[in-house]
Write a structure and sequence with these properties.
single chain, mainly alpha
Length: 171
Amino acid sequence: MHAIFVMPLLDAESRVSDGDHPSVRLWLRLLTCTMMIERHVRARLRERFDITLARFDLMAQLARAPKGLRMSDISRRLMVTGGNITGLTDQLVGEGLVARREPPGDRRVYRVSLTAKGRRQFAAMVAEHDRWIVDVLTAVQGVERETLYHLLGGVKAALAHALEAHREPSR
């Protein structure tokens, strides 16, 4: 009989040491939780819909903009390069999930929107995505979930204030 050794999955928090500042430890804990959930969602999207998280995210942006978005707007919203958006859009156009149109009077830009097929498929993906998130977070129940939600709201507000204070003035 062969023994199977399973290596523990290293995560961002595994880099923490007792000497690290509590803020660094908190950041790595938050990052690790996010990465764990994202890894789960990526795998499920691939298994169930044969789609990447990047393509799902692009479709999510288009679902929020029924009139479509310019490629540059998608790039800005997803914080990725225009080249990445072009590649993802080409794939989705090829599958009939999105359409790329030239607005009247401006042949330099394209507006991208979900097709009817894309809206149907995205609705199915979102329904399952939501179930996956609910399922994975069922371990955090009741008062603990509400407390964590409110505490993270406070962290978010404090971060927004701190980051605004450190923002460089526009030139």
